[in-house]
Design brief:
Helices cover 39% and strands 18% of the residues. The chain is built from six helices and four strands. Strands 2-3-1-4 form a four-stranded antiparallel beta sheet, covered by helices on one side. It is elongated.
């Protein structure tokens, strides 16, 4: 979890934007290769990347696994998107459900949305019995859940983790 107390309002220049763009595409590249790609010295590159981490602009560096290939081997063959509406929308109720949802390992993504449902969740489970257990934990056992609509994925056409980054500062 990123440190939200850090001021992420740091000034960004074209080199910072290029670093962010390159890192979100391949964070495993060496500092030397990254420095060459953005045309700075390796020490400058390392210092700038550290600054971007400290500012919270880079939350973490991870390996993105192939769900299509690895999922069936591990028994994660079912993806569902759930719209959840609560009985009340006060801050305490919304915060409580959000904390409950994000603590569940089946929840891969959790969005508070408006208008419409209160939350959209992306769930990954082994199969339909596993989904039933998740539904019991997240929706049935939670007294504030009024309505749930679930859509089961039959094909993932696109999955992207990169954010669009302008390579110039003329936004």
């Amino acid at each position: 979890m990123p440190d939200t107390s850090v001021n992420s309002e740091i000034p960004l220049d074209a080199i910072d934007l290029a670093l962010l763009s390159h890192l979100q595409t391949d964070a495993a590249q060496s500092n030397l290769a990254l420095a060459e790609a953005v045309h700075v010295s390796p020490p400058t590159c390392l210092r700038r990347v550290k600054r971007l981490h400290e500012a919270g602009l880079i939350e973490r560096q991870v390996a993105i696994l192939s769900a299509d290939r690895l999922g069936p081997l591990l028994g994660h063959g079912l993806t569902a998107l759930a719209e959840v509406t609560l009985d009340r929308q006060d801050a305490q109720t919304l915060d409580a459900f959000e904390a409950h949802a994000v603590a569940d390992a089946a929840v891969q993504q959790c969005y508070r949305v408006s208008p419409g449902p209160d939350f959209c969740l992306v769930l990954v489970m082994a199969d339909m019995p596993a989904y039933h257990a998740v539904a019991q934990r997240l929706f049935t056992a939670h007294a504030q859940v009024r309505n749930v609509r679930v859509f089961f994925s039959v094909k993932r056409a696109k999955f992207e983790t990169t954010l669009p980054i302008p390579l110039n500062l003329n936004r």
